[in-house]
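Q: Structure tokens for this one, please.
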Amino acid sequence: MKRLYQHPIITSLLVTAILLPVVAVSGGVGHGNYTLAIVLFPYAAVAVVELDQFFNSAVPMIVLALLQFPLYGTLISVGRGIVSDRIVFTAVLASHAIAVLVAVLVVYN
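A: Here is the predicted structure, written as tokens:
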């Protein structure tokens, strides 16, 4: 477990590989519940709602979902050299929480 903590980019790639199939199954290929997808991948959820009126937004949604957690891992890895771990984790968690709130407002309104 300590090795995963020391390598946030690798950990984020593993998390993405685990969570994407979970979200796909919970979505039921269009017939399920998207709450888990909105909470875990809020940027992709907002992209679907906002871009779907212009074109099929499946590809941007998948790209955003694939990049979200590796970007978090990169931010944590880079931020560790600048400020303390607690500040970096709090900033990433806060930005994700704000994105979830925005996604919930956009998707359900």
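A few notes: The radius of gyration is 15 Å. The longest helix spans residues 85-108.
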